[in-house]
Amino acid sequence: MQISRKVLTWAGVAAVMAVLVVFVGPYIIGPESIVGSKNVLTTARTIPLPVDGPESLDWDPQGEGPYVGVTDGRILKWRGEDLGWVEFAYTTPHRENCSSHKVEPACGRPLGLSFEKKSGDLYFCDGYFGVMKVGPKGGLAEKVVDEVEGQKVMFANQMDIDEEEDVIYFNDSSDTYNFGDVFYVFLCGEKKGRSIRYDMKTKEAKVIMDHLHFPNGLAISKDGSFVLSCEVPTQLVHRYWAKGPKAGTCDVFAKLPGYADNIRRTSTGDFWVALHSKKTLFSRLSMIHPWIGKFLMKTLKMELLVFLFEGGKPHAVAVKLCGETGEVVEILEDSEGKTMKFVSEVQERDDKLWFGSVFLPSVWVLDRQ
């Protein structure tokens, strides 16, 4: 098959930009600055883990935790400074090849966590197995749903529970690829993601938003009237109206200053969004056309690709959105990555902000008092 001159041109631009980032560095084409942000995340306290990737956090109905899902397919529970992290649950009994640093599909990959307060059950999305749950005593998790409208759930990501309606909402980031292909899903330009509503009473799963380009974080409003889904490459937060006069319709809730991971609601009804990275010149150019993204995936190692998307400067950003208007009301950063980087989730709890990371063996806590 003959490759067009246009495709070769874009591929050449991408290759040149990769070289520039590596050799010229973040001084020229590093992460874009955000007006009004506060560089305060450097003061956060670090809680190390014995395994990588505490991507999401949650607390049980008794307030114990946090619980985190990690790279080797387990759920760990924080028992305080004296006891540290202990095993609470795991996704599969087949754990012979599970690694603390590398995701193995057979071991599963727990992502978004949500406790159901009335039962004490922990529900979570697994990037290979679908939506799962485990009882209050932990142990081996069981499958809740891995199919919707006759199609397999490939990449369950984040979820939230409407306990009044006994409904789970979750994102399937791609109906074709799973967690192991996360960067391809991001760069390929294919709009194969969807948001799903699962009725726990009838066991019926229904797609409520589709043709999304890598939907990642998901959260329900405080009154349950709408569901938010973060579409990573476009930096858009989409809103699906679940109740009221607009029920069944969608609109755009917010535009973010970077690439989102998880989103979490606060006790007052606002939302915190963790940004995996801010926009960079390299990220903008790489997503001009799907051919560029696919070319980069084929020619660059994953570690280099992550480095380039971070503008050569891994960092951390948390964005707070008004729960009524979607307006950005606060932005916190560790712009140099001195303490925090590669953040995947922000949770506000008892005048503290808790942060997880999809890559690093760390949870961070920022005192807001």
From TrEMBL:
SUPFAM superfamilies tied to this protein: Calcium-dependent phosphotriesterase
InterPro entries (UniProt xref): 6-blade_b-propeller_TolB-like, Strictosidine_synth_cons-reg
Main location: other
Keyword Transmembrane: yes
Gene3D superfamilies: TolB, C-terminal domain
Transmembrane intervals: 7-29
Pfam families associated with the record: SSL_N (PF20067), Str_synth (PF03088)
UniProt-annotated location(s): Vacuole
Cellular compartments per GO CC: vacuole
Keywords (A to Z) from UniProt: Glycoprotein, Membrane, Signal, Transmembrane, Transmembrane helix, Vacuole
Domain Strictosidine synthase conserved region, chain residue ranges per copy: 157-245
Similarity section: Belongs to the strictosidine synthase family.
Protein name as catalogued: Protein STRICTOSIDINE SYNTHASE-LIKE 1
Organism: Cardamine amara subsp. amara
Source lineage: Eukaryota, Viridiplantae, Streptophyta, Embryophyta, Tracheophyta
